[in-house]
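Hi, here's the filled form for the chain we discussed.

Project: internal
Contact: R.S.
Residues: 148
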Amino acid sequence: MNELTRRDEMSLAGAALRGAPWKAAAVTGGAVATASLLLGLITGSADLAWALGVGVTLFTLVAAIGAISKPDTGDRVTRQARNWSLRHPWRFSLYPAAGAAILMYPIELVLDGDGVFGAAWDAAWGGAWIYLLTAIVATTMRGRAVKN
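And the returned structure, exactly as it came back:
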């Protein structure tokens, strides 16, 4: 029986994300959030919650895709986790999406004023989009997985 538990999958996804380009992800997310806010100020339709949500989305996408883009680098555990992530892109994508939804929830709750359930709904939709985008891109990268 070679079935992995959810806990095992979460450990593998976490190990794959350990080598993510966090600085590049933070710079990308911050730059896009700033540009979105500035563009909103110029056009008169500034929305801080929207700008931060877009920044969190791009931060998550850059970190998740960057983490699995080079499966042959890092220590043995990280390489194995990245290869697992490339072979199971839909399962791997659950974890960055959940993390992004958790990051988006307080933004929606405090800045957007949707209430507890409205903020949860908006954060869940944001996580769903990240799940879909990450999984599609990771699926296209499946050929990078090192054959064992």
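Let me know if anything looks off before we file it.
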